[in-house]
Design brief:
A hairpin with a 2-residue loop joins strand 4 and strand 5. The protein is α/β, with parallel strands linked by helices. The model has no long low-confidence stretch (mean pLDDT about 95). Helix 10 crosses helix 11. It is built from 15 helices and 14 strands. It has an eight-stranded mixed beta sheet with strand order 5-4-3-2-1-6-8-7, with helices on both faces. It has a six-stranded mixed beta sheet with strand order 11-10-9-12-14-13, sandwiched between helices. Helices cover about 40% and strands about 20% of the residues.
């Protein structure tokens, strides 16, 4: 049995094919990543892959996730890799989905209703699903939801201070996101710390080249997440503004902008690209800032400041933390950001080992704290595809 997993981010698309055989159950036989899909960076879009141990890459214009999916499926067809089932990451299931769902015609219609909840993600994932249904008809497919991880958010975290009837009627509440990543790294953190997951207080930082968020984790489940009703809230992101005063949106309406225009500004033209005017990629922004670009310097500072606010708030909320975990491409790849966030807070019992931090490799699990640090600092590469695989296997009854 071969299971294909698609993981669509806002600006990236990963795939992995897991093969089950008697020698090694569900090993990865093919994997790849489409980078800079339909986004603005100094680097162009490209696809990188490893198939049967052979590495390859090519630069290709990727204006949509549908196009990226076509390219990735072509790679699998060219290498004669057959597929028996497919799992898809779907960011926001709203109130319709709280667990993995088979992609029946009825569920496909419900997925469409979730488009407005995550406009940078849900339509893209849906487009990939459609491509797979067209190219691989009859193969069972499943959607696995990021929001499911946060299903146990307490009322005080998920409720907005809006008129109760209005909020209930329209589902205005916090959902929380990046759940697949948090499911994986929280389990790995527990293993590395040698403690049961239910006994840990964790601050989990998923910092990607598209979206970023922070989760407070206690008593075995998520108790808060920086994102909200949609993935727009919280941290400064690549093209998303994160938290802003709602009055700004009202003022834009008064200035004559419609909902689509405002959505474009907040989701596509804000964040790092809006602040810097240079790039939506933090690594590129930092490099340019070090060359003297003042707009890029301010963008990097705003990004770090917002992240500090959330980590500090969750640290207070949980009366400390056993560990702060950094994951995804920026979280594991930027030692400069980790040093900026975790340096200078020694009175809180957080002591960063600068040398370990600088030497930490993005693809390796690493403690980057000093031995006496009361709160451990962990770099853990995420594996959302592994979580999707396990959900597909459960759904298949395998």
């Amino acid at each position: 049995m071969n299971i294909l997993v698609f993981n669509c981010g806002s600006s990236s698309q990963l795939f992995k094919v897991y093969e089950n055989n008697d020698e090694q159950p569900f090993k990865v036989i093919a994997s790849g990543k489409a980078k800079n899909v339909a986004t603005r960076t100094q680097a162009g879009s490209q696809i990188e892959w490893i198939i049967a141990g052979r590495h390859g890459s090519k630069k290709v214009e990727l204006n949509s996730h549908r196009q990226a999916a076509e390219e990735n499926l072509n790679l699998l067809a060219e290498n004669s890799i057959h597929i028996d089932a497919i799992g898809h990451r779907f960011v926001h299931g709203g109130e319709y989905f709280t667990q993995t769902a088979a992609l029946t015609p009825a569920n496909m219609e419900l997925l469409k209703k979730c488009f407005p909840l995550a406009p940078l993600h849900n339509p893209n994932s849906y487009g990939v699903i459609e491509v797979c249904q067209e190219r691989l008809p009859g193969i069972p497919q499943f959607a696995v939801f990021d929001t499911a991880f946060h299903a146990q958010l307490p009322e005080e975290a998920l409720r907005y201070a809006l008129p109760r009837g209005l909020a209930l009627e329209h589902g205005f509440r916090k959902y929380g996101f990046h759940g697949l990543s948090y499911a994986y790294v929280s389990e790995r953190a527990a293993d590395l710390l040698g403690k049961p997951l239910s006994a840990l207080r964790l601050i989990l930082c998923h910092l990607g080249t598209g979206g970023s968020s922070v989760t407070a984790f206690k008593d075995g489940h998520s108790i808060d997440n920086s994102m909200g009703y949609s993935p727009l809230a919280g941290l400064v992101m690549s093209t998303r503004c994160g938290d802003i005063d709602a009055e700004i949106v009202l003022e834009l309406v008064r200035l004559g902008m419609n909902a689509d225009e405002i959505e474009r500004i907040l989701n596509h033209e804000s964040g790092l690209i809006g602040l810097s005017g240079y790039s939506s990629n933090l690594a590129e922004v930092i490099v340019e800032a070090e060359k003297g670009n003042e707009d890029c310097r301010i963008a990097a500072e705003v990004y770090a400041n917002r992240l500090k606010l959330y980590i500090g708030g969750y640290y207070w909320q949980m009366d400390g933390a056993d560990a702060i975990v950094f994951t995804d491409s920026i979280g594991t790849g930027s030692w400069k950001l980790r040093e900026k966030i975790c340096g200078g807070v020694e009175t809180l019992g957080i002591r960063l080992d600068k040398e370990k931090n600088r030497l930490a490799k993005p693809d390796q699990e690493t403690f980057v704290n000093r031995a006496e640090s009361a709160t451990k600092i962990l770099v853990i590469p995420t594996d959302e595809e592994q979580v999707i695989l396990q959900e597909v296997l459960k759904a298949l009854g395998a």
